[in-house]
């Protein structure tokens, strides 16, 4: 395992990124000028601290406003021991099951069907090994070519200093990971996904930081492009149907959901990713 200074450095970064992202999303709430601007109040994040019985805890931040029907930004730092069965699936944990993990997780479900939902997560985990993982993906209700290009370009720029092969590799990994096999379709328009980066702590940590800052830069710009556009009842109905794909993926396949539930995390924080209203045909 790494020393305490390295743990502190990663934890502080995830908390700092959380603060920057939350402030940026609150500014979008203030800037909203759509049809409901006068009747809806700008959203603000509410924070709830929680403690894990086995060690550590986190802060769940949620906001419901006029741009975001529901957005959650969670940070957690937890430690303890995996169950013997779960430890078998975690690198370096089979010996004694001990672990330490810190990370940030964000899921946004905008009110407007024109504004794409998004997910971003980065984390650092230590057992007898230590590695980084995470990613970001865009999940539009109806894909927009300009949004897709901008989102991927931002992630490609973030990956560029870390090797020419990084972005193509992480993009392909996301295409494979964010996939619903029971429907034979992708969850959205992709992004990047990576896990088990353990070659060099400083270099891998810089990648995680660059990905976080790229997300902070590009997603608000995408939101601004669409947040004031009007929509129809048909748009809303289709939005609620597409949200069902997000629910299916997160409950059936998402690694973060499984990790949180199997390590005694805060259930409400873990399921924060689920949309507030959804429908199936």
List its salient traits.
single chain, 281 residues, alpha+beta, oxygen-dependent coproporphyrinogen oxidase, seven-stranded antiparallel beta sheet, two-stranded antiparallel sheet, 8 helices, 9 strands, 25% strand, globular
List the topology elements.
Layout: H1 4-31, E1 46-51, E2 56-63, E3 68-81, H2 84-87, E4 98-110, E5 118-126, E6 130-138, H3 145-159, H4 166-177, E7 179-180, E8 185-186, E9 190-197, H5 201-226, H6 233-252, H7 255-262, H8 267-270
Antiparallel strand pairs: 1-2, 2-3, 3-4, 4-5, 5-6, 6-9, 7-8
Helix pairs in contact: 1-5, 3-5
Structure description:
With 281 residues, the chain is an alpha+beta fold. It has a single domain (4-272), classed as oxygen-dependent coproporphyrinogen oxidase, CATH 3.40.1500. Helix content is 42%, strand content 25%. The chain has helices at 4-31, 84-87, 145-159, 166-177, 201-226, 233-252, 255-262, 267-270, and strands at residues 46-51, 56-63, 68-81, 98-110, 118-126, 130-138, 179-180, 185-186, 190-197. Strands 1-2-3-4-5-6-9 form a seven-stranded antiparallel beta sheet. A two-stranded antiparallel sheet has the order 7-8. The longest helix has 28 residues, at 4-31. The model has no long low-confidence stretch (mean pLDDT 94).
